[in-house]
Amino acid sequence: MKQLPDELREILETTPPEEVIAKIEALDPPWKKDLLPWRIAKPGEKIPWQAVYSLIEQPITPANIEWAQRKIVELGLAEDA
Q: Alpha helix (H) ranges present in the chain?
């Protein structure tokens, strides 16, 4: 896993999740272009605040998969298997 820039680590520790993307946009640091939301966004496309959850790589665990499957069913996006 790549080392996080100290500035990003501080932002993540001190900023509410719904404000992180906007704060990074406002600061416009050189490392911003290396972050997943900015790598996949089209020029001029607004990045939703929820993209904050894709800033740090995290391993997928069986518990994560189980939770996601339950949520998909709860949201009515799939039938219970």
A: 6-14, 17-27, 36-40, 62-74
